Amino acid sequence: MKKLYILILLVLLSATFLHGCTFPQPQAAGFAQLDEYPAEEEYLPEPPPAIRPPSPGRFTLRYDPGSSLNPLTTLNRDNIVLTSLLYESLFVLNRHLVPEPVLAKSWSSEDNMLFEIEIMPGISMSDGTYMSAQDVAYSIRQASRSGRFVNRFRAVSRVQATGDFTLTVELHAPNSRFINLLDIPIIKNGTSGDRLPPGSGPYNFPYEGAMRLAAFSEHRYYRNLPVPAIFLRECADTELTELFDAGELSLIWDDPHDAFEIRLNRLRETRYFETTTLQFLGFNSNHIALGNPDVRRAISVAIDRQYIVENIKRPGLTLAAPLALPPTFPQYDSEWEIQYFPPLEEMALLLRRAGLDISFEFNENPFPGISDGRGGYIDFTIDFIVNIENTHKVRAAYAIADTLRRNGLNVIVRPLPWERFMSALNNGTFDMFYGETQLSADFDLSPLLLPGPLNFGRTASTEYRPFLSDFLAARTDDEIRWATDRLLSEIRATAPFAPILYKRHAIYSPIGVISGADPSQSSVFRNITDWSINLLMIN
User: Fold this and answer.
1) By CB atoms within 10 Å of each CB, which of 400, 401, 402, 424 scores lowest?
2) CB contact at 8 A, 313 and 395
3) Cβ contacts of 508 within 8 Å, gap of 6 or more
4) Tens digit of pLDDT for each residue in 2-40?
5) 155: exposed, middle or buried (C-beta count within 10 Å: 0-12, 13-18, 19+)?
């Protein structure tokens, strides 16, 4: 009976406890009301969640998946930039265009015609094999036959692997700076037709079609790479500013004086580097006056290059070139620039020597004519063409034309769309043009001096060949200085073209994202193992 009493008491107590307790009901969206809590209980809000570090961003580069990534043949400039992450070369140029070894272990030449090169052993390639001298020889041979490096290897006569890690390269003529040209990407033997041939770069694609690059685990400096993955983004030129400002692109390569100008709003770090890209004036020797070297030289003398690089081009991004080589050329001597007369006075003297009437008092036309050989003068104008898409070149062309007009030459600037510009060059329907070309890293001026594809105005001549040969063959500093002086003096005297400036290129990155970067013409990602990338600074 006692047990039954205790059981009934427990049931009653349980019913009383459950009746006084309610389960919390779901609250409507909004802020909680204080009167929902018992008055006798002190409300203590929950502590805030622990502060978490910001999620790391993604280091992202521009990429065109519709274009080839074959480093020897692709012409897409963004993919070209990426190829230096996928492939390595025997040498790489530093920011001052001086070669530094990458895959080359040693090299030598007794006559600057036959080069013996030893490559580093144990270099892993992305297909699981090791690089051999056969791969290197194959890459040089393919680059000399077709693709974007073909012009630099015109002088190569034979390339041969002589051992597992040794090869020889033989030239038609001596070139003491030939190794400057060996910054071409090395691909696997027999894969030149592939869209993505195997290479030995620090990154590769983890699978076909991936929109990211993964650190190559077999690369010798794998543990020094700044990030394990580099993400890729396809975008149009018009999207670059928006994506960079939003933090969706982490690095942009730029030719600041290209036809398409990138204008960024976000605070950024800019790193510049030298290039071998020369802007120049080209002449048509069929013109009644421009066939005379003195007239061409007079025009070259009158160009105010310093004004162009300081006021028309963006300051610091170009280098005035009063002579055909840049002042950064190692053996360059600034005394070679010295003129005996002020530029405009020398221009007048050269025009008079060429037989032009510049006295004005004998000619009703405000511009001079050229002597007809019978005591009279033939009036003429100079048709100066320039690509209209490049505003920097157009402005420079007008500045040059204004100077020439003020000093007696009737120059008319004719801006043309690219296709019409090239058509005029190929058809010879111009008198003068604003040109640009990227010279090879040995500064071989043959494309501008010898008959070839750039000889639009027929001012090139085989007479320059001995000067070029001496310039390329010179070995010691004294020999190079002597040969360079002779070559530049000949170009200055005969003016087959008029040099204007050399360009610099740049890379942009958000402030604080990258440290240690030192890009060059060979590779935007040169020495990437020395980089530090702060992913927390990326949006």
Assistant:
1) 402
2) no
3) 244, 251, 252, 254, 262, 264, 268, 269, 270
4) 443 444 333 333 443 333 333 333 333 333 333 333 333
5) buried
